[in-house]
Each structure stands twice: as C-alpha cells, then as structure tokens.
Amino acid sequence: MRRGVPKLWTIGQKVRVESSPPVDGIAEDVSPLGALMVRSVDGRLHTVMAADVKVWPVEGTT
Predict the structure, then answer these.
(1) pLDDT in tens, 24-35
(2) Which of 9, 11, 31, 56 has the highest count of CB atoms within 10 angstroms of its CB?
C-alpha cells in the first residue's frame, strides 16, 4: 500500500465485486482517485470505482 493512504480493513481480504461479471479476488490497494484495487483469481488487477463489494466470511465464523 502506498505511503499516506490510510489502512482500510478491506485491504488484504478476500472480496467479491458484484459487477457484470462478478470478480472474486483480494483487495490490494486504493488508487489515487479512491478506487479499490482488486487482484482477481486469474491474476488481473481490477480498478473498482463503484460497485457492491462483499468481504468473504472467514472460515469458522459463520
């Protein structure tokens, strides 16, 4: 994560971006414009400007 960007609890978590099609991956960073950067399971980095993002439950907590 870049210096000067506050740590978000979402960073480092498994997430699902409810877009068309949905994107599953790891929330990695926040862009200079405030977009969430998600690395999908196929290795691509997605810039998420606006979408519902769900954090996957941690195993054993549901």
Answers:
(1) 999 999 998 889
(2) 11
Task: Give the span between the Cα atoms of 57 and 33, in whole angstroms.
Answer: 28
Strands in 14-18's sheet, in edge-to-edge order, are: 45-48, 36-40, 23-30, 14-18, 52-55
Q: What is the pTM of this model?
A: 0.74
Coil/strand/helix, residue 60:
coil
CB atoms within 10 A of CB 59: 6
Kindly report the length of the chain. 62
With a cut of 50, say whether residue 6 has pLDDT above it. yes
Q: Please answer whether residues 40 and 24 qualify as being in contact, where contact means their C-beta atoms are separated by less than 8 angstroms.
A: yes
